[in-house]
Design a protein that fits this description.
alpha+beta, Jelly Rolls, Arc Repressor Mutant, subunit A, 2 domains, five-stranded antiparallel sheet, 10 strands, 19% strand
Length: 309
Amino acid sequence: MDPLSEVLSLLKLKSYVAGGFAVDAKMGFDFPGFQGIKCYAVGSGSCWLSVQDLPDAVLISAGDCVLLPRGLPFCLAADLSFPRVRFVYEHAALKPGDEVLYDGTRGCSILGGHFLLTGSHSEMLLSSLPSIVHLRSESDKETMRWSLERMRKELRDPQPGRSLIAQQLAYMMLVQALRLHLQEEAAKGVGWLTALADPQMRTAITCMHDDPGHLWTLQELADRLAMSRTVFAQKFKNKVGMTPMEYLTRWRMLLAGDRLKSSDDSVSAICSSLGYETESAFGRAFRRVWGCSPREHRRRSEAGASSHN
């Protein structure tokens, strides 16, 4: 599995709502702060997107896609000077056939979804993204077109299983948007997602992800890339924001936290599978990342699961 897929799998993205809604030409919507990440594509028409604390609004038009990963309050309106009301999905949701009505003179239609990140350490993904990811080039639109058309079809002619299909289509749109952002913009920043845009850093990260229990050394990773140890270490830190060994430790601890939560594997078994010779060394590394011991993490996870039953 590639690093992006692995991280998304660990974050356990859960679709909270998926489908479409309309932004009327004469009335805008205010959206409160939220948890997780929102992924929207404009099916037809256009409107303005304004995010709290950002100085400039963004015009989004048919075929454009936006990601909102920071949970900041925002508004959508054909004209930001028009009155706005608090958004209620049930009131604005597109009904079968509605999507074709919004063509710019009557407002616009928005397709997509809101995803909750139920896994831990979601900042590994979200902190690598700006407050707005705006994808609008023709190549971006071509990549998103199939998902958009399928979502439109579900809205126009709902069939049994519509909700599940809409969730999967929204998820595909999100992954496609992350891919496009990775290709076009991520190389300009610093962070885990940024590093995946660099072929050499992606190779190093893939090595660590493919075999987290291997006793990796800085020299061995540098050799895999035919780089000197010093150059590799400096480039990795510049791109990712932490050293290769810090990244490896963090990745191992994310895997450990997930296994402690979702499996019955013993702490000893998890410890040895991730390259640690002693439980004490594993425990120290775990505490630095999670702020508690492995056994305490498992107890908290079990208590949390019981409270939801």
